[in-house]
Design a protein that fits this description.
- With about 210 residues, this protein is of the alpha+beta class.
- The relative contact order is 0.12.
- The protein has two domains: about 1-35, no CATH class; about 40-210, Trafficking protein particle complex subunit 3 (Muramoyl-pentapeptide Carboxypeptidase, domain 2).
- The N and C termini lie far apart (about 40 Å).
- Strands 4-5-7-6 form a four-stranded antiparallel sheet, sandwiched between helices. A three-stranded antiparallel sheet has the order 1-2-3, with no helix packed on it.
- The longest helix is centred in the N-terminal third of the chain and has 29 residues, at about 55-85.
- Helices cover about 45% and strands about 15% of the residues.
- Bound molecules: zinc ion.
Amino acid sequence: MSSSPLSEDRPYLPDDFFHQELEAGSLLRIDGTRVAALSVDFIHTLHFALVEHCGDAAQDILYRGGYEWGLQDMIRLNRQLHDEIGGGNFDLWQMDAKFVLESWWTTLAEAGWGACQFDFSRLSRGVVCVELKNSIVAQALDGADHPVCHIYAGLFAGALSFFERTERHAVEIQCQALGQESCKFVIGPGAEVDNAESRRQQGASAAEIIRRLG
Ligand SMILES: [Zn+2]
């Protein structure tokens, strides 16, 4: 029995998802769309250069970059699902959140951005929790003293804002860069996310922050 290229019982192998056209100098997905390869060193340098040039604004720049990326990615996915499923009856917003968000993340997981688990149990209140393993930002900034995956927080906020058709925010409440086993995020309305961040700053664990979301 063959296992999925993304199953946990085999290592992540970029060749499963991409091929190179050396003469054209391009890297392509299996579906033929072009992509760029980013090294961990590039991610490291990007973060340090932003902090050096923009100071405290760096976090916000990374978050906003992720947000716009998540939004554009969902616009692309909407178009793709429309073409695949087709028909005048197609409506992304009537589809199951789990299906839509996991479909969206599959492309990023294939590109090496890590493995995500979404918890939609609070979706009726607009709150979603995410656990991310193997964040490339956490790998690049290992040993940090605060959560560093602002691009990811922005990605989740952008994608959820599109899917819920209202502004969503996101914050990282636990990060692998601090030696924890995974990164965890709360996405939701501004007040919920601000409360989660305040609790993290006061020293609450991710489990406690999530428990207090109700
Ligand atoms: Zn992280």
